[in-house]
Amino acid sequence: MRAEAPLGKRTPSSIPDAPNRYKRYSIWLFGIIVVLLCSWRSGVTPYQLVVGLPQMGDLLAQMFPPDWKYLDKIWKPMMETVQIAIIGTTFGAILAVPVSLLSAYNVIPNRWVAGIFRFILNLVRTIPDLLFASIFVAVLGIGPFAGVLALIFFSFGMIAKLTYEAVEAIDPGPLEAMTAVGANKLQWIRYGVVPQVMGQFISFVLYTFEVNVRAASVLGLVGAGGIGLLLNRSLGQLRYDRSAIIILLTLAIVLLIDYGSSRIRRKLL
Fold first, then answer.
1. 114 near 105, Cβ under 8 Å?
2. pLDDT class for 3, splitting at 50, 70, 90?
């Protein structure tokens, strides 16, 4: 029987592995060097932040007190922002369902087919929602319809990506049992895949809705409707007190949605 080492004395196995320690230090040093190089090459330095602090202080001083009388005029555009997020998230989620199944290797073993749909998803996710909005505004004109289309594409890319990864991580046992008893592909998906990922899918949709509410608030900066139009106008008119009330209302709506969505997601997962 092996004798225990006396207290206060370190056994060879308890001594930290020197090579691992050096490796950890090397990773940290490499990360710091990369950040410093990026800061130097991009011209972004802490000095700029220090120099800009007085201007930031002046801007914040002009925001307070907020123009509370402006609240009546921004309530309707704020609701339009939430409606844009709801429509964009809903249609994006509907489009994401078939594409996520076609992108999962355990559902579509043909890697060429799944690879094509994954490439489409990567292409969609490469384009940010603000750029989507700018394109649709240029094509369709100023208004909330451009914002809805931008959020549909954004939601589609995000939800499909998260969902097909969840599908590939499901328990293969029920699927193998259904294959053994001769279930066809639709039955396989309906009774083997969907029950295992439904909770996560709804969670992804709710999370995307939260993100879309924030995104819809700034889509108006490029003319895609919502509260962003008024925010852009108030900034252009140097009415920072009005900008402050818009930001406060947006913050309140986002916190409310975030709270409700988080509670629902905790119950689902």
1. yes
2. very low
